[in-house]
Design goal:
- Two copies of one chain form a homodimer.
- By secondary structure, the first copy, chain A, is mainly alpha-helical.
- Chain A is built from 14 helices and two strands.
- In chain A, strands 1-2 form a two-stranded antiparallel ribbon.
- In chain A, strand 1 and strand 2 form a beta hairpin.
- In chain A, helix 2 packs across helix 6, helix 3 runs antiparallel to helix 14 and helix 10 runs antiparallel to helix 13.
- The two termini of chain A are 37 Å apart.
- The model of chain A has no long low-confidence stretch (mean pLDDT 90).
- The interface between A and B is large, with 58 and 58 residues.
């Protein structure tokens, strides 16, 4: 069963809440543009998969958790694409938000999506205030300072980079948020689910490095070789292409091994395996590595 | 009694929570820079004054409310000063954040402060989850889309501007948040306090227009004539200087009249009167109006 319709409905409902007759129309439109097309929705999929593995006894809370994570992720893409960061003209195969709407609205769209993420959780509190508050705390620590994705991005402005803090914050934080929030949304202890999220995040980073090294811009839907251009650390430059693929496989085996015992353990292992297949690149026939 | 030490302590404590050994040091420093020097801290002062007028039975919640409002306000200043908006080089008499730390860190500092505002409220939930959730909802609707300060700023990118929605969102939203959150933090119904916040916000807008028209850059600590330069609506251009001062006095009388009956009513009236005195500019002797 695919989670996509459930995720898209939850995100669309959140975006509608940010729109009204009295809202500035172009910014309202930019919010919708910023979260679509959906793509794999990998973080909310992980979040809901964990919630379901844990019983998903309050689906409205799990939906809010999944939506909040994706809104923060989309906000970070909108801001990261801006000229002062990656200066990316395309994203998901269409003009990036600042190219389509201008820099002021891109900046505001990102800000609004961050706020909306917390609003979604605050509204979900009607179903279970204790869980909603726990979700907000996890989301906050995964997004902001000192250890969330803002911190991760912040490391790129340092002359000396703390590599493990950088990776943990920049890519890992929202993946651990996804597993932790999935568990918390279903009333389970989030701590036991941190390792799964961390390993999926690590795998995602290696897979991203591989795609960056192997694919062209048309396939990827965004500019390639950005790590090299921006002198960011990269698994392929450290391990080579085949080494990076082996590393990816190891990480995903570890991810599956880390899954806590729970009612939906088998289905969750299956989800991680499917994620692994999607992440692992097929080497082009002409590739020398 | 001044509220300043209480407010500064609460804000400093929030900023410390965003800093850690593992945080990127320049972004950590930019957070501190973004909220200092404090200046009048007018929004948190209003928030705490209302909370105290309502009994202030849980001061930790009121502190969190006041801090969250100020963090959102500071975030909006950091982002508004950036080159794609006002392109302001100075703020509070020192280089704006993007001039001191560069655009990437200014963007991230604003994002981090927004997230921190919600984290402060999520942490305060330990004292009273119901009030904390109510505060988050008010803060969200006052900050984001469709009617918060992001929406207000968004109107400046429209070809046709909805003036009342623009003013209500751009300046009014955080002032109504201040009175509403002050009341909610003390367990009172926030609705009764909306009008006071709206009127103080209106007064502040008129006073800002007056200062913009009357003072020079050195006195103001930021660039002048920004409304004219950016073709924004302005009370002085509509009513003239003396007309705008009369309008300011009318609004503040209305603000005092709107204060709901509460234990600390007299002290609160006094606070509004003091705010009025601070806001009303002394006409320079040479002014022709």
């Amino acid at each position: 069963m695919t989670l996509k319709p459930r995720i898209e409905a939850a995100i669309a409902s959140a975006i509608r809440q940010g729109q009204a007759q009295s809202a500035p129309p172009r910014l309202a439109s930019a919010l919708d543009y910023s979260v679509s097309p959906g793509g794999a929705r990998i973080r909310p999929t992980i979040c809901l998969s964990v919630a379901m593995a844990c019983g998903d006894d309050k689906p409205a809370i799990a939906d809010a958790a999944a939506t909040a994570i994706e809104l923060i992720h989309c906000a970070s893409l909108v801001h990261d694409d801006m000229p002062c960061f990656d200066n990316a003209d395309i994203r998901r195969g269409k003009p990036s938000v600042h190219r389509a709407y201008g820099e002021p609205l891109a900046l505001l769209a990102g800000d609004s999506l961050i706020i909306m993420a917390f609003e979604v959780l605050a509204r979900a509190a009607e179903h279970d205030p204790t869980r909603a508050i726990q979700l907000m705390r996890i989301l906050g620590s995964s997004s902001g300072m000192p250890g969330g994705i803002c911190a991760g991005q912040g490391w790129e402005s340092e002359s000396e980079i703390n590599l493990s803090a950088y990776h943990r914050a920049k890519t890992g934080a929202l993946f651990t948020a996804a597993t932790r929030m999935g568990a918390a949304a279903a009333g389970e202890d989030p701590e036991a689910w941190t390792e799964l999220g961390a390993r999926i995040g690590e795998a995602f980073q290696v897979a991203d490095d591989l795609r960056d090294a192997l694919y062209d811009e048309a396939t990827l839907g965004k500019p390639v070789n950005q790590d090299e251009i921006n002198s960011r650390p990269n698994a392929v430059s450290e391990l080579g292409v085949r080494g990076a693929i082996r590393r990816l496989e190891d990480i995903l085996s570890g991810a599956i091994a880390s899954i806590p015992s729970c009612p939906g353990e088998a289905a969750l292992c299956d989800m991680v395996r499917k994620t692994a297949e999607r992440l692992t690149p097929v080497l082009p026939a002409h590739h020398p590595a």
